[in-house]
Every structure is written in structure tokens, then in C-alpha cells.
Amino acid sequence: MNKCEIQFGKMKWKNPLTVASGTFGLEYAELFDLSLLGALTTKTITPKPKKGNKPQRIVETEVGLLNSIGLQNPGLEEFIKTDLQKYQEFDTNLIVSISASTIDEFIKMIERLDIQTGIDAYEINVSCPNVENEGIAFGTNEEIVFELTRKITSVTEKTVIIKLTPNVTSIENIALAAQKGGADGLALINTLYGMAIDVDARKLKLRNGIGGYSGPGIKPIALQNVYRVAQVVAIPILAMGGISNVQDALEFVIAGATAVAVGTQNFVNPFTSIEVIRGLEVYCHQHSVDFNELIGSIT
Amino acid sequence: MNKCEIQFGKMKWKNPLTVASGTFGLEYAELFDLSLLGALTTKTITPKPKKGNKPQRIVETEVGLLNSIGLQNPGLEEFIKTDLQKYQEFDTNLIVSISASTIDEFIKMIERLDIQTGIDAYEINVSCPNVENEGIAFGTNEEIVFELTRKITSVTEKTVIIKLTPNVTSIENIALAAQKGGADGLALINTLYGMAIDVDARKLKLRNGIGGYSGPGIKPIALQNVYRVAQVVAIPILAMGGISNVQDALEFVIAGATAVAVGTQNFVNPFTSIEVIRGLEVYCHQHSVDFNELIGSIT
Amino acid sequence: MQLKKLPIQNISFLNQNYFELSFRDEKITELVKPGQFFQIKNPSKKFPLLPRPFSISKVEKDTFSFLIKKIGKVTRSLSELVQGEIVQLLGPLGNGFTLVDNKNSLLVSGGIGYAPMPFLEKELHGKGNHITSFHGGRTGNDIFCREVMNCTEDGSVGLSGFVTEHVEKYLQDNPVDVVYSCGPEPMLKVLVELCIKNSVQVQISMERIMACGVGACCGCVVSVEENNEVVYKKVCKDGPVFDGAKVVWDE
Amino acid sequence: MQLKKLPIQNISFLNQNYFELSFRDEKITELVKPGQFFQIKNPSKKFPLLPRPFSISKVEKDTFSFLIKKIGKVTRSLSELVQGEIVQLLGPLGNGFTLVDNKNSLLVSGGIGYAPMPFLEKELHGKGNHITSFHGGRTGNDIFCREVMNCTEDGSVGLSGFVTEHVEKYLQDNPVDVVYSCGPEPMLKVLVELCIKNSVQVQISMERIMACGVGACCGCVVSVEENNEVVYKKVCKDGPVFDGAKVVWDE
Ligand SMILES: Cc1cc2nc3c(=O)[nH]c(=O)nc-3n(C[C@H](O)[C@H](O)[C@H](O)COP(=O)(O)OP(=O)(O)OC[C@H]3O[C@@H](n4cnc5c(N)ncnc54)[C@H](O)[C@@H]3O)c2cc1C
Ligand SMILES: Cc1cc2nc3c(=O)[nH]c(=O)nc-3n(C[C@H](O)[C@H](O)[C@H](O)COP(=O)(O)OP(=O)(O)OC[C@H]3O[C@@H](n4cnc5c(N)ncnc54)[C@H](O)[C@@H]3O)c2cc1C
Ligand SMILES: Cc1cc2nc3c(=O)[nH]c(=O)nc-3n(C[C@H](O)[C@H](O)[C@H](O)COP(=O)(O)O)c2cc1C
Ligand SMILES: Cc1cc2nc3c(=O)[nH]c(=O)nc-3n(C[C@H](O)[C@H](O)[C@H](O)COP(=O)(O)O)c2cc1C
Ligand code: FES
Ligand code: FES
pTM score > 0.80 for this model? Predict the structure, then answer.
């Protein structure tokens, strides 16, 4: 059986599957061996601990999920002390997702993380829709993305992945700015802005009003973003957005993604990523195609 | 029973329902009296006839629809000669949707239409994702939207509605530009960019690759756009995007829409708009609220 | 055209792949013409969103029925319905076949393209035509009726080989004024060529993915020659039946 | 925690609003503690996407069951399942109640908050506690068991009025070491105040909309006092059972 190994930036992955930041945790190690994944991606870590947004933080819509978690996390130091130790136990790549308010803070985080062991890549979250004055401002501005990427890649040898927001006029321009800044890869898409209203109470369902929309409803949009970006960049793409099964994953790969991440679907069935790995192997076998030939094979 | 009359720009509507441009036609007059609607909206007309895009033009996705019709239409003169006559038979407002490649062409169209009878408003489609170098370029640029709106509103006395694309970084800025240009109202949203792939054939499902995504999957995104725009503009909003029933319509009204349009759902059940009218009346009655108080009543 | 919610009068299975759905409605049976279709939706399932087009297969008094092949989500979900369940029907839609009087008519169908044939045959019969029917299937599972000239690719039932091979011979030896056909596009293409060669008029029923089904969305176009120009025609409204000689096949 | 796909062993209806779902699995019945819950999903329906949390209501040998109230899409769709159909269960999840030994325990539930009580009662009993149970409902339809002190708001069954009114009297007259409770938040709030006034320890099971159910998404937080600070705790992982005195109620 075809093994679907890939190269992603400076990393070798045993298979092209990871989990989307913020949708997966070490808790799932009780269910299966996390080493089975091509990579693990942490939830986004910030320099200082973050309480996150006030509840209600989660709303299910007809065909997807809205969240406004607000990057609740224990902060960099606590992450290094506790979770990072545990992540190191797994025999796979570790992608640490980080976010900060200034370029300087980003660099400081990278410097602090770079002296730890067991980290293979950074995913730079410049696209979280749920944090004011942080992240999203970066992700919508080409010059800042270029500048940030350039500075980060000049201080670390590790794989640097820039995670993009779809909430922009031209995702190609942002992608090109990241590539120009030296990014080793791109992750897309983060959530779309979305909202839901309780019509009887005439209230916003999320406390924050607007949240991040994920799940099956965003898949055609995510696919289109991946396809468009793949047409213009030469660096690998880690694709996500509504992937629920192997068919979805294949669409993204054929559109140009080197690797894929399962997000919201982890909440529905935590084994999805494992099932997708197996499904990709079967597809490659049945279609007598090498996984790497499949990438961007759209005609 | 509460009658839900509204004022939209210079128009009085007997109820806040219309149909989304391109998703409805005179064919449906066989099913019910089109005068029951608050307004009728034509499919987008261009100066010259347009053949439209090559098929495949339509793909159903898991929770929505992708189209790349490419504004197929008979052109302005043929529209005036045939369809306009027929539209005039109905005792309701008529919104003529138009698109063109240059500001000049837009103005010429308005001048030509302005001497016809039976037209109550123009919907300026600066947001069709399926036509190259037309429409979408306008809709993503504040200055052009301002300029276009200013020129159009200076040549006509009729209600001018600018239809916005959600495929931008800041829809508020475009909305404000239209308002500053003198627009009487805004229509949002047009479709999102979307895509689907046949994984067995490894082919784009739409001949054009990328199409416009509509239907239930885009509702949370549309609602969020309407809410954000309603926070910053003073002119009325005609909302659309995934409206399938009265609950959906209510979300948009409570978020700030004065009127709503049913689009893709017409294909599923052509009576939807009529059912929504009735549903809004029932809601207002049961909640002892005047429809106009409901608009933007979110807390 | 009307939008109706009708209870299923009967659902019966021809074999694993094909089933017949019938409904009762006098107004509709009065209106319909052979070759017309309905947009059918199971209103209890929101997704897939779109209704699907199906040709009227049989009309008897106030009862009309569809012959449906299970190929995907909607056809499978329709096949699981039971008598009495409510189905949404929009129609009749489309132009239908143009019926001739007192002529030699040849009916050619392939696979599920057989669906409109029984109704067409009945109406042509009523107009005094002399009718010959050919039907092609891959295997015996795709054969619906013993009274027509059946051909199977695997030779298991009736004549062996493609239906068009047998039609070719028939056209050489028999007088035919008009050919009516419905089936897969490759079959239609070959058939149209045969008819052109033999100078026989041919009406073909085309298939396209549809959204509205009524002519409103421009989603279902085919290229057709008109006044020496190639124009897009809507299968749902201008068709589904076209003059075969005028259809410009997609690249 | 485990992810299981189990056939429904039995589904039975208490009345129009409530039903019981039971499954058989030895490993699970060995693992579970009172107050823990499972994330349950009907895998044959894609939407609604998310599984829903339900408390373990009863455990008997290798059989465990849930008591479910029909209130929305998922609970309605679960109620339509039949014996033998497959359900996806993720669990056991959450901390569960902390069980005391040989004490005077008071169980207080409201509405569907009764669900975890039978299992809790059984286990407390096994630890030699003296147990008194109060349960409140709006009407007789919300009463599940005759052996507890039932209160209904409409007075149709048992004591009349809010359950907390009767608990208040009980606390005045009887020695209680610990209160265990599950029910609507307004009830919990009043009960916690009563317990604080009477210096009785109170463990309450909280409800929040959940996505992951395991602690991965941070979607289900409540405000809880910890070291004189108000922090967010996850209902799914740090709860659902919290020290009532520490919970900071939402504005
Ligand atoms: C005018 C017309 C008459 C037809 N009459 C019959 C009939 O009498 N009996 C019968 O069994 N079939 C008939 N068909 C075909 C039938 O519509 C398709 O088999 C059906 O839509 C498949 O739906 P599905 O969800 O089961 O398959 P899907 O899983 O959706 O798709 C399978 C294939 O069906 C076709 N298809 C999908 N969606 C549509 C759509 N909205 N409109 C048209 N085709 C689509 C596509 O080619 C697709 O590849 C007719 C089609 C047309 C256009
Ligand atoms: C720890 C815990 C244990 C529970 N135990 C039981 C039990 O034993 N029996 C029982 O009948 N109910 C129990 N519930 C409540 C049960 O989860 C909800 O009734 C159920 O989610 C409603 O789903 P629905 O689709 O039918 O309703 P919906 O139509 O989705 O919503 C109705 C209401 O249910 C709540 N709800 C919706 N989604 C979720 C979600 N993902 N997580 C939590 N709540 C949600 C919301 O308050 C919503 O307003 C428990 C909840 C929690 C958090
Ligand atoms: C509950 C939740 C929390 C998330 N947290 C983060 C996060 O911390 N950092 C990040 O980059 N993306 C975060 N995301 C976005 C996902 O990583 C992913 O980009 C998005 O959900 C689209 O994929 P999906 O549709 O498969 O979920 C979060 C998404 C959800 C649903
Ligand atoms: C088949 C189709 C054709 C459309 N054609 C037009 C058009 O000609 N002009 C226009 O402004 N919008 C057009 N739209 C966009 C709709 O008017 C509407 O903005 C969009 O579909 C979102 O609403 P919905 O989700 O309810 O369909 C079209 C949409 C569809 C699905
Ligand atoms: S399906 Fe809409 S025009 Fe034919
Ligand atoms: S539901 Fe995800 S952390 Fe509790």
C-alpha cells in the first residue's frame, strides 16, 4: 500500500494529515496513538496567558459551527512547562501555533521556543477573527505579512508556516507576501466571519456577536482559496476548511494542497484524521497514483 | 394581521420580500401572482446581449449551490422590448438589475432605462464573481464604487441600490463609499467565491473552475455582513444569502435588513418568498411587534 | 406548470436499480405531453437542496408515473420512500416531443432513456403512427419491456451489441419518417449521425444538471445551431427535446 | 474515554417528552462514575453536526442508560431510533460527583436534571450514605419516580411549589452533610444560596453547549472562583460537577 509520505518545508511527514489548530488536544491521546498523524498542531499560544472571550463561545448553525473562543490559552511559559513536554512523547512532527500583538512579540516567542526540543515548525496565526487588534490586522495586510515573515524566518531554522485568513479581497497577494518573506509553507483557511441570531430573544447567539465560521458550509470557499493560492505560490500548502472525510481531503490535494488538516470534524468524530489517512492510501492504490503526483493534479 | 409595509429608498413596498437577481423569472407567474411580492428583481441586464459562460454552469455542493452562469442575458434593448413589458403587468415595485464594464456604460444604461415606464429602482451589480474584468473589479474598490454611485445617482431620480460582494476585506468601507455616493439602499450579499472538484476524474466540476457559492452554507457569512454594514450605514439594506424560510429572514431583519430576498431557495420551492411574507406577518402578530420596529432590533 | 405535493400512489421495483413511482392527479394527467418532465423533491430532506428532473413515463387516466434509476443521493432517497409519503412535484416542464400523425416512427432508447418511451409510444399510437421501438442496455438488468427490440451490450437479452448498430441496419431496410430518442449522449450522437446520413428527422431528449427547471437560472444550457449561429438553449425550457441535427455537441 | 458505536439495546418512552436509551458494554459500565456523561451522535445524520452531552442515568451490570428529554433537533432524532440502530458514544466524560461515605446526603434535581440521580443514588447507597431525594417538575409529566420527594409547580403531583422551597424547609429541620444537584440554572442558583446559608457543601452539575466534550475546544466554559480569582473552567473536563459555592453565575 502506498504510504503517502510528503515533504512539507523542512519536515518529512509520514502521511499528509494533521489537525487544525484549536480543534484538537492531547485529550485525544486516550483514543488513539497520536503518532499515527503526519503532524500535530497545537492550539494557538500567545506570549501571556489569555482568558479568552466571555461565553457564549460556541454555536452550531445549520451546516457548521461558529466559535469565538478568543484564543484562550495558558501562555507561552506554561505551554513550555506542561503541554510541550507531553507533545514530545509522540513520534511525529510538532507544529506550534503562535500569535502575538506585535512583530517584536512574535520574534521573542520564536526565540524562546527555538531553544526547546521537539518543535518542528511554527504556524503563525495572523488570522484569528476572534481577537481584537491582534492577528487579523496582520493577516489582511500584505506589507505586514511580508515584514513579519521575513523577520521570523531570519531568526529560526525551523519550518515557518503562515496561516491565512479568507476574509480578504485577495488571498493571493497575502500568500505571495508570505512567500516573498521566506515562508516555508502556508496554512489555509482560518475561519470565515459568521454570525447567528436567536430570533425569539432577538439576541446574538454568540456573546461576541461575530465569530469564526467553520465546518462543511465553508468547504467550497476553502477549496477555492487553496486552488487560487496554489496557482501562484511555489511553497507547500496545508489545507483546511470543512474537511469531513477522505473525499473532501482529496479535493484539497487535487486543488494543490500538500497536506490537509481536520478541524471541526474532530468534534464530530475524533477518528476522522486517521480514517482520512487510510482513505488516501486506498485512493492512491486504487487509482495507481503516487500521492505526490496527486498534489495539484487538477485539469 | 400586521401588514409589514416598508419604505425602501423612494419606494413603498407592501411587504419586505423580493427575489434575488438571477434566481427568479417571469416563468414563475404560472405558479402565483407575482404582485404578491413587495418587489420583483430582474436578472442582471448588460448593455449588449451576453452568451454567458460555457457549461458546466451549475454544481450542487453538499449544502449549497455553485454557479458560473456568466450573466447570460438578452441585452438592454431586447430586455426593454420583451421582458420589461411583461414585468409591468404586475402591481408591485420593479427593480432592474444592471451591470456594465465601464462607468460610462452604466450611465448610458440608466439613461436609456429612465425613459421607460414601470421601473422603480436600479440594482447596480458591481459584484458578480463570474464575469472577468466586469462587475467584481468595481465592487472591491471603494473609490470606484463611490464614483459610480455618485454619477448614477446624479442622472436618475429613481431608487439606486448598490449590490455588494462579500469577497472583500472590509465590506463596511465599500458600503460607506456607496452611501457617500448617494445610494438609496444596499443589497447584500452576492455569492462567495467557491469551487468543487470531481475527485475521480480530477476535474473542476464547473467549466470555469471558480463559481459563485450560494444557499444555506453561506447564511452565517451573509448575516454577519448585513449586521456589520447595518452598524455603519443609514440607508436601508436588502439582505440575501441562504434565506430558506421565515426564521432565516427574521435573522436578517433583526440584524438590520429592511427587506430580504430569496435566491437559491426559489429553485427548491418557488413559493418560499410567499411563505416568508406570511411567516413575517405571523411573527409580528405573535410577538406584538410592528415590522419596522423589528429592523435592527438586535441586542 | 404547477407545484404539487402529492402522496405516493405506488412505488414498485423492477429490479435492484430501477423503480417506478406513481401519483394520482387529474389536472396533471390532462396537461402532460410525452417528453415533458417534472422537478421532483423529497420535501422531508433539506439536502441535497435541488429537486431532480424526471420524465413522465406512463399516463393512465388520472395516474402518472416515473421510471427512475438509482444512481446517487436523491434517486436513492426517493427509492426509500413508501406509499403515502408526500413528494413535491413541479411541472409539467419542457417542450416535449413533437408528435407526427400517420407516419413511420422509430423510437430508440438507451438505459434509463427508456423512461419517456411508454407514454410517447401510447400517444403516437393514438395518432395513427406505425411504431417500431429499439431499446439498448448494458445487461439484462437494463431491459424493461419484452415488446420492443431489445439489445444488450453483453448479449444476455435480445440482440447483441449496441442499439445503434441494430438501428443502422433497420434504417437501411425500412422506411422511417421520424426518429424519437432518449439516452446517453454518446448514443444520441451516433444516432443523430445515422439519421442525418439517412435523411431522417430525429428528435432527441437531452439531459443537463438543472437548478430551477423552468428557465429562470440559465444553468442547463446546450449549444444549438440557430440561423447559422451557435446559441445556448435551455434544456429545461427550450428542450429537453431538440432537433438532433441542430445540437452542437460539447467538446 | 472511548469512542464506541453501539446498537441500541432498548428504547422506551416514559411519556411524550422523555425517553430512555440503553446500551450494553461491559468496559463502559466498569469505567463510569455518577455525574459523568457521554457525547452522543446519530452517525447516520450528518446534520446537526455536533454530538450532544447526556448524563449516565442508570447502570446495571453491563447495561447503562440515558434519560433524555425531547427539546430540539438531536433529541427528537434520537427519539425516533429503534432497537438495534447504531449510535456513536464518546465517553465517559467529565469529573462526575465526588462521593462521600456514611453521610447524610441530599439529592436535589429539577426537570431533566433528574437524569444522573438514579446512578448517583445507587452508588451513594453503596457507600453507606443516608439519602434523601427531592425532585421538582413543572407538571406531573416531569416526575419520573415515586420513591423521591416530588414537587410540582402546578401541584398536580406530590408537594406543590418549587422544589427549592421544600428543600429550604428540609434543611432547617434535618441534618445534611452534602447536597448533590442537577437542574436548571435558576434552581441551582437558589439551592447554592440555601446551602451556603446552611453551611452545607453542595456539588452541582452544570450545563453548557459543547463542541468537543473532552476539553479540546474551550467552548464550554463557566466562571469559577479559584484562589480568589475568577477563572474560566471547562464544563466538559473540569466539570460538569462543580463546588456550588465557587461558581460565579453569568450576568
Ligand atoms: C430532462 C431530464 C429528464 C430525466 N428523466 C429521468 C427519468 O425519467 N428517470 C431517471 O432515472 N433519470 C432521469 N433523468 C436523470 C436524473 O435527473 C438524474 O439521474 C438525477 O438527477 C440524479 O440525481 P442523484 O442525486 O440520484 O444523483 P447525483 O449523485 O446528484 O448525481 C449523479 C449524476 O446525475 C446527474 N445530475 C445530478 N444533479 C442533477 C440535476 N439537478 N439535474 C439533472 N441531472 C443531474 C449528473 O450527471 C450526476 O453526475 C432526467 C434528467 C433530465 C435532465
Ligand atoms: C453535561 C451535560 C449533561 C446532560 N445530560 C442530559 C441528560 O442526561 N438528558 C437530557 O435530556 N439532556 C441532557 N443534557 C442537555 C442536552 O445535552 C441537550 O438537551 C441537548 O444538547 C439538546 O439538543 P437538541 O439538538 O435536541 O436541541 P437544540 O435544538 O440543539 O437546542 C436546544 C437547547 O439545548 C442546548 N444545547 C444545544 N446544543 C448543545 C450542546 N452541543 N451541548 C449542550 N447543550 C446544548 C441549548 O441550551 C439549546 O438552547 C446535558 C447537557 C450537559 C452539558
Ligand atoms: C473551536 C475552534 C477553535 C479554533 N482555534 C484556533 C486557533 O487557536 N488557532 C488557529 O489558527 N485556528 C483556530 N481555529 C480555526 C481552525 O484551525 C481551522 O482553520 C478552521 O476551523 C477551518 O477548518 P474546519 O472547517 O475543518 O474546522 C479554530 C476553530 C475552531 C472551530
Ligand atoms: C444561478 C444564480 C444566478 C445568479 N445571477 C445573478 C445575477 O444575474 N445578478 C446578481 O446580482 N446576482 C446573481 N446571483 C446572486 C443572487 O442574486 C444572490 O445574491 C446570491 O445567490 C445569494 O443569495 P442565495 O443564497 O439566497 O441564493 C445569482 C445566483 C444564482 C444562484
Ligand atoms: S435549469 Fe434553470 S434554466 Fe434550466
Ligand atoms: S466542549 Fe470543548 S472544551 Fe468543553
Answer: yes
